[in-house]
Amino acid sequence: MTSGTIFPEKDIQQLNKKIKRAKAIAISGHTNPDGDCIGSCLGLCTYILDQYPGKKVDVLLEPINKKFGFLKYADGIAQEKETRRPYDLFFSLDCSDSERLNQFQPYLEEAKDTICIDHHITNVGFGNLRFIDPEASSTCEILFRLFDYDKISFDCAQDLYLGIVHDTGVFKHSNTTRKVMEIAGALIDKGVRPDFIIDETFYKKTYIQNQILGRALMESILILEKKMIFSVITKKDIDLYEVTSDDLDGIIDQLRVTEGVECALFLYEKEQGQFKVSMRSNGKVDVSRIARTFGGGGHVKAAGCTVSGNVRDIINNISMHVEHQLNQDENI
Q1: Are 33 and 64 in contact (CB under 8 A)?
Q2: Concatenated DSSP letters of 181-210
Q3: In angstroms, rounded to a whole number, what is the distance separating the alpha carbons of residues 186 and 166?
Q4: Contact, 65 vs 77, CB < 8 A?
Q5: How far apart, in Å, are the Cα atoms of 189 and each of 149, 183, 207?
Q6: Is 323 in a helix, a strand, or coil?
Q7: Is the dihedral of CA 94, 99, 101, 104 positive or negative?
Q8: What's the alpha-carbon Rg for the chain, to the nearest Å?
Q9: d(CA 242, CA 156)
């Protein structure tokens, strides 16, 4: 199968040369790593080590959800590098801005060489070599197009399929194209089991996760003539149910499918007065524009940011931007 990549062949050759020459490689992604971030980082790591078993490759990410533990090398993910020497090569994956690397940004800055691979439209353009395609469904899709298909192992294929599944919302979002489905099929040919990956990492929930989901849905509120919905989980709620941020996965997606809603917001309190905000759109609102206003980023239909303040002010400020876009759409 041909990759169908849009990137110049000379850049792909340069990528492979850099990997071959580098003795110590770091692979990292954005803060609060999601399925595409985890899948792309582990997929690249696996691809490299399959070809160069003795090479030093560190995957540097914040702690990941235990549901991803079945992936090869997931147990080797670290939160800091082992040696003091700068990396020969640093990969930033699924990250639109080097600041979103959070505590790993200094490792990028001191590395001898850097490569950025990403699909966010908000990418600011960094790295000595860049593979950025906002039209791609996911960073894992880009990696598939950069890799030699014959060299993609089952473990690597599992990583890539995972990332594509998560960033397309199990092939429901508008970024699901014919090309994406063809790539998914090619990965299935490598032995990937869609039912296992989708159930294990997308749908399966614990009893406590179902409880906190029910709490969020019961206390959700419709505003802007029922075109916007929001829900909030406070630090007090998180402590009461003894949940982590990972247990809140999927709440925003359930809010989004509320009938008549054009934009959904989910807030959870990370620290006193500091909220992680997830935004989803059903088409009429570009939530990436709103997220950028508040220092975040993402995609047209899925974005996020971290905002400090009280819930009322945060909702009022964000809903003002949502209302403005909805009014613009009605006036077209």
Answers
A1: yes
A2: HHHHHHHHTTT--HHHHHIIIII---HHHH
A3: 17
A4: no
A5: 11, 10, 34
A6: helix
A7: positive
A8: 20
A9: 34
Which of 129, 96, 156 has its CA nearest to residue 16? 129
Distance between CA 255 and CA 167 in Å, rounded?
A: 17
Q: Render each residue's pLDDT in the chain as its tens digit; 332 residues.
A: 444 568 999 999 999 999 999 999 999 999 989 999 999 999 999 999 999 998 999 999 999 998 999 999 999 999 998 878 999 999 999 999 999 999 999 999 999 999 999 999 888 899 999 999 999 999 999 999 999 999 999 999 999 999 999 999 899 888 999 999 999 999 999 999 999 999 999 889 999 999 999 999 999 999 999 999 999 999 999 999 999 988 998 899 999 999 999 999 999 999 999 999 999 999 999 999 999 999 988 888 889 999 999 999 999 999 999 999 999 877 65
Exposed / middle / buried, residue 134 (Cβ in 10 Å: 0-12, 13-18, 19+): middle
In terms of C-beta distances under 8 Å and separation of at least 24 residues, what long-range contacts does 80-85 make, across chains too? 81/26, 81/107, 82/58, 83/24, 85/24
Q: What is the pTM of this model?
A: 0.82
Could you tell me how far CA 239 lies from the centroid of its own chain?
26
Q: Which helix (H) or strand (E) holds 162?
A: helix 154-167
Cα→Cα distances 293→168, 302, 317, 318, Å: 24, 15, 10, 9
Cβ-contact 265, 221 below 8 angstroms: no
Distances (CA, A) of 111 to 29, 90, 108, 134, 247: 15, 6, 5, 26, 35
> What does the DSSP 8-state code read for residue 149?
G
Residues pairing with 58 in the sheet: 26
Distance CA 170, CA 97 (A): 26
Cβ distance 192 to 72 under 8 Å?
no
